Design the sequence.
């Protein structure tokens, strides 16, 4: 499975971006796709996750009410809609896949994209 993110960029505080993650190759019918982010000098943190078969998404407290994860199975694409962006959201954002249930533990994920940069000023 290959994951390719896109949609990052530079926005002002309060702005919005939508990130996309396209999967190619064999994809899981179960498992989870998650979005993580990593700011310089900080650990990678999970921000949102969704089971491959749908179901209730999970969000980190820091993004609840502002970020929304969704998926288009036909397009093998997972989205992260980010609204009301803050400077502290500035980071490299990665999508990741795991054949197991969703978690915000990065080591549980076996496939990673190359990342897309989000900068909020």
Sequence:
């Amino acid at each position: 499975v290959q994951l390719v993110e896109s949609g990052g960029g530079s926005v002002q505080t309060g702005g919005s971006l939508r990130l996309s993650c396209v999967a190619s190759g064999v994809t899981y019918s179960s498992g989870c796709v998650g979005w993580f982010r990593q700011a310089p000098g900080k650990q990678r943190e999970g921000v949102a996750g969704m089971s491959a078969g749908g179901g209730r998404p999970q969000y980190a407290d820091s993004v609840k009410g502002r970020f929304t994860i969704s998926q288009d199975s036909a397009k093998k694409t997972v989205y992260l809609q980010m609204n009301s962006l803050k400077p502290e959201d500035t980071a490299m954002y990665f999508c990741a896949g795991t054949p197991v249930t969703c978690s915000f533990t990065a080591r549980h994920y076996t496939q990673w994209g190359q990342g897309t940069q989000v900068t909020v000023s």
Remarks:
- The first strand starts at residue 2 and ends at 6.
- The mean pLDDT is 93.
